[in-house]
Design goal:
The chain is mainly alpha-helical. It contains six helices and three strands; from the N terminus they run αααβαββαα.
């Protein structure tokens, strides 16, 4: 299965190339294919230290589902709220700094959740308390101040995916 890790890295690099160039011309696709193949040969031994198995493919599937969910659902809801606040004639905000506990065990999981919260308009992680296993989040329109209710509203879905992706 050593070859499988090269295929996975190639597909990832080539997909990013296509998405970021936004060009589907023959020349662009051929150039991207060649560049991706060269980068795959150079980077795979550095990026992937062990063989890829079925568990890794399942994690990759969760990562893709997470990305789609985040970009389509969470970003839409957050942008809609912030646009509503900005375009309103009155200042209809309820800012607060809330404690949001988390249960993921890996640094990667914590980083994914914190990044997702911060990238979502209207929320920003301002501190992480590793001992209490909690984020402190500035929330522009706080609907809950209790830690568990804030977790439910802000990060529960992110944490569900992070635990499946990073174990």
């Amino acid at each position: 299965m050593k070859f499988l890790k090269y295929i996975a890295v190639f597909l990832l690099i080539y997909t990013f190339y296509i998405v970021f160039t936004a060009s589907l011309t023959g020349f662009s696709l051929a150039l991207g294919f060649i560049a991706s193949a060269l980068l795959t040969g150079l980077l795979t031994p550095i990026l992937v230290q062990r063989d890829i198995g079925a568990r890794d493919l399942k994690r990759l599937a969760y990562l893709i589902l997470y990305y789609l969910y985040y970009m389509i659902v969470e970003e839409y809801k957050a942008h809609k709220l912030v646009i509503k606040i900005v375009l309103s004639r009155k200042m209809n905000i309820r800012p607060a700094i809330v404690k949001v506990p988390f249960g993921v065990k890996t640094d990667y999981g914590v980083t994914l959740i914190a990044g997702s919260i911060t990238n979502t308009p209207g929320t920003c992680v301002i501190d992480i308390d590793e001992k209490e296993r909690a984020f402190y989040v500035h929330w522009i329109y706080a609907t809950a101040l209790e830690p568990e209710k804030a977790r439910e509203a802000i990060s529960k879905v992110f944490e569900k995916y992070a635990s499946k992706i990073f174990g």
